[in-house]
Amino acid sequence: MTGEVAVYGVFVPTLLIIGVIASVSTLALMRAADRFGFYRLVTYRALVDLALYVIVFGAVAILAPLFGFAS
User: Fold this and answer.
1) Sign for the pseudo-dihedral over CA of 17, 20, 8, 62
2) Domains in the chain, number
3) Is 16 buried (19+), middle (13-18) or exposed (0-12) by CB count in 10 A?
4) Which of 18, 20, 35, 71 would suit a FRET pair with 29, their CA atoms being 20 to 30 Å apart?
5) Which domain holds residue 59?
6) How far apart are CA 50 and CA 57, in angstroms?
7) Whole-angstrom Cα distance, residue 26 to residue 54?
8) Do 30 and 40 form a contact (C-beta atoms < 8 A)?
9) What is the DSSP letter of 1?
10) How confident is the model at residue 35 (pLDDT cuts 50, 70, 90)?
């Protein structure tokens, strides 16, 4: 994995980009889970949200080379 990506001449860490993508994706999934009533089935919503973020972050990190973020 390369250390940084140049965005309009500014070097941005790859993990920051992956984290932003994972955050936006997790927010969308949390809204969908809330809309479909998934959170009524769990006791600790914050723990489920954290686990969802970790899963999405890992998936984005694994798929990053397909989009050219890592070598």
Assistant:
1) positive
2) 1
3) exposed
4) 71
5) 4-67
6) 10
7) 9
8) no
9) -
10) very high
